[in-house]
């Protein structure tokens, strides 16, 4: 008999380094203005494409926002939404919120939006008849894959969620079948840390992993 083929194995050293990568991945809000080296964006998108997707549909779509006018409009959308969010807090939480730097729109050299093409034909509908939302989940997995690949290159990624999706969709002029997933800033962070910024600022703490496990 032919021997059973052996797959790739990862030793303890690699696993320890992977844990370090996961630990040092941060949602970055403060960037240097240094431009990204040529080919960086394409390389990261290629890495994102290694993420799993339902039915191998690969529904992710990356829209890189380079036009100054469009960037300014996105910033206006953020400022409007941020003011509304601030008004929803009071007392100490309002003061904390006002001190948080929640966007990297001024300095990040690269900005992009990620969409899910819900009309995608690739994959022939496999796996999403009963759970069509798995298309969106697939795109989020691609984002996380890109996030880790960026961190491995010394880059930081910031997910800007304080936005009105309709406002972003309007300014980027994308097909109607594209569902907005998120808007991101990419660049070199001004500082690196293994603790989330919101935890350092006293906004929230990481929960105990045991607290999210339910056994049946």
Automatic annotation (TrEMBL):
Cross-referenced InterPro entries: BluB, Nitroreductase, Nitroreductase-like, Nitroreductase/BluB
Domain of life: Bacteria
EC number assigned by the record: 1.13.11.79
Pfam families associated with the record: Nitroreductase
The entry's keywords: Oxidoreductase
GO molecular function: 5,6-dimethylbenzimidazole synthase activity
Nitroreductase domain boundaries: 23-188
UniProt name for this protein: 5,6-dimethylbenzimidazole synthase
Source organism of the structure: Ferranicluibacter rubi
Lineage of the organism: Bacteria, Pseudomonadati, Pseudomonadota, Alphaproteobacteria, Hyphomicrobiales
């Amino acid at each position: 008999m032919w021997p059973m083929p052996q797959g790739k194995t990862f030793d303890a050293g690699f696993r320890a380094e992977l844990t370090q990568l996961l630990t040092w991945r941060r949602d970055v809000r403060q960037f240097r203005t240094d431009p990204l080296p040529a080919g960086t964006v394409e390389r990261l998108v290629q890495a994102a494409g290694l993420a799993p997707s339902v039915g191998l549909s690969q529904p992710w779509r990356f829209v890189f926002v380079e036009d100054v006018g469009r960037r300014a409009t996105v910033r206006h959308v953020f400022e409007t939404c941020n003011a509304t969010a601030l008004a929803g807090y009071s007392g100490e939480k309002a003061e904390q919120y006002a001190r948080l730097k929640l966007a990297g729109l001024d300095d990040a050299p690269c900005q992009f939006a990620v969409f899910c093409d819900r009309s995608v034909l690739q994959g022939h509908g496999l796996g999403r008849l009963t759970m069509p939302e798995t298309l969106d989940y697939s795109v989020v997995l691609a984002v996380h894959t890109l996030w880790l690949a960026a961190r491995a290159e010394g880059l930081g990624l910031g997910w800007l969620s304080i936005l009105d999706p309709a406002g972003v969709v309007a300014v980027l002029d994308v097909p109607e079948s594209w569902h907005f997933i998120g808007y991101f800033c990419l660049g070199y962070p001004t500082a690196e840390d293994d603790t989330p910024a919101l935890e350092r600022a006293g906004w929230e703490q990481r929960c105990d992993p045991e607290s999210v496990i339910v056994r049946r």
